[in-house]
């Protein structure tokens, strides 16, 4: 496994890789969710490139950039074991050199849900993903369904800018008790960790109702919020039932839809979702 | 010479072209300035791709999109004669399909001069150039010095997004009497056309002064504005003496600098510039 930092090294190493090339962008502190993306890429592509970059521009001024968990040696060992061919670990100076001033913005999709609560977050995501798509020039790129809005935004951006890249969205990987894997789970204390299972339990109740014929968005959302309200350590920030592609809020679920939630467990903010249809 | 419209045709034709590939993006209604870009590309690259697309997103609501001059058959004949291999003539629907919402914005450089007067103009330029750079994937791209701020913005964007593309800026091509070639010159009536030589005459006076040792920006600008003021049909909108790369206004010209002007001749707005250093 080759490890590169700057663009020249990356371009030189990338051009030696046989195609097709699969790309897994990450912010490091890898868990089984990330590794599932690598394995999907490994199964579908001749070469696999991963990046590790804690992208400062997708953190808000009051967010956790400084204390975002990092463990590069462990990450590199995991990627090597998982069969990655090339790892790109750029510095912030490589991605945003002095005088940097170019931003990629997906408008409508990023002005709701996570984007409404975290203004500027998705502009940071789409800007760094654009840079990485140009630099890595993969055939396929792999994202986790857990960050559902991010996948919708990246799919739209890829289509709008006509990147010749297939976006592959992989299922959310969960702990045995249903909690979605997230680098931020390390922030939970034991009681919060135990209570955090309420996210998936609440979504599962809605799924059972949907499968039993309940297709009214309002009803599905109220099942989720009632369940979260029963957990004293949890505080629901939003619950949304929206079109899978446009993220427009629905009245009735007909096509593919996304039921998504953001929940505070103490100071830690968790997100999760399930897909209908 | 092959002519393509949609992305699939473009990708198929592009992959057959031997590298290096030179790219000349245009809005059509070609003149000798455009052809000089094609010839530069022809001289430096194995293959030459040109695009003709009157990009709606770089026109403001009160600008001349509908009446922007067009002559596709003539343009195609000129490009074929000049040795272009592949011409891309996308429709607005190809570049901005239903639901389009992704924008590329270069911040600081576009908030002054042309960008200050034409808000949103450069966002349209950088968005369409990004789309075209991704789709055409050239090794070199050719722009005219006449649109000086555009070249600074595109150079910055290319650097920031790390496109592996060399931006080549070619000298302004002028009519015999000094008027810079522009598709918009057709809007001038005969008296305005004659008077329009004042732009280059004014810039030339400043150049002579600079070459004689006058390096104070204010003095160079006032030589230009005095000369424009002497022409009754001309109305100066701005004169600027700025750093060539950052477009920061200068007190004293030391390194490479740009002296640029925007002038109304009747209802027609013309721009021109010269480079010092």
Characteristic terms for this protein:
homodimer; 277 residues; alpha/beta; Rossmann fold; Pantoate--beta-alanine Ligase, Chain: A,domain 2; 2 domains; 6-stranded parallel β-sheet; 10 helices; globular
Summarize the structure.
2 copies of one chain form a homodimer. Chain A has 277 residues and is of the alpha/beta class.
Word description of this protein:
Two copies of one chain form a homodimer. Chain A is of the alpha/beta class. Chain A folds into two domains: 2-170, HUPs (Rossmann fold), CATH 3.40.50; 183-270, Pantoate-beta-alanine ligase, C-terminal domain (Pantoate--beta-alanine Ligase, Chain: A,domain 2). Helix content of chain A is 37%, strand content 22%. Chain A has ten helices and ten strands. Chain A has helices at 7-15, 32-44, 72-81, 92-95, 113-117, 121-136, 148-160, 190-195, 198-211, 217-229, and strands at 2-4, 21-26, 47-52, 86-88, 102-106, 140-144, 166-170, 234-243, 257-265, 268-276. Chain A has a six-stranded parallel beta sheet with strand order 1-4-3-2-6-7, sandwiched between helices. A three-stranded antiparallel beta sheet of chain A has the order 8-9-10. The first copy, chain A, starts with a strand and ends with a strand. Strand 5 (102-106) of chain A pairs antiparallel with strand 5 of chain B.
Q: How many strand segments of chain A?
A: 10
- What's the number of helices of chain A? 10
Q: Structural class of the secondary structure composition of chain A?
A: alpha/beta
Give the SSE order of chain A as H and E letters.
EHEHEHEHEHHEHEHHHEEE
Largest inter-chain interface?
A-B, 28 and 28 residues
